[in-house]
Design brief:
The chain is of the alpha+beta class and 105 residues long.
């Protein structure tokens, strides 16, 4: 596969001629499952999406969502290492007597 990496409105896509494919990397190279989702219009730097583009990417999206596991709130709280605040040490009181300095006149 020889795709051109193209950022369209800040989002990375692969171009195969004028066919726009999803951006997927496997070991630093375009993945084998890059899905065609539309055609690229170079004059106005836009994508004309296929009518079924959502169905095309649904399996990849479902796999991505399935890989994300939500942690329970309590387990998340237990796993957080909270910084502890050091206790203030009691200061020794300062001497109340001032050292007398000779005034220079």
């Amino acid at each position: 596969m020889n795709y051109e990496l193209k950022h369209i409105h800040g989002i990375p896509y692969y171009l195969d001629g004028t066919t726009v494919r999803t951006f997927e990397l496997v070991a630093g190279k375009p993945g084998a499952n890059c899905i065609a989702i539309g055609t690229y219009n170079a004059t106005d730097d836009s994508i004309t999406y296929y009518t079924d583009w959502r169905e095309r990417v649904k399996s990849n999206l479902d796999a991505f969502r399935g890989a994300i596991s939500a942690q329970e709130r309590d387990k998340l709280r237990e796993s957080i290492i909270k910084p502890t605040k050091q206790r203030k040490t009691t200061r020794t009181p300062r001497k109340t007597t001032r050292s007398k300095t000779a005034k220079s006149e």
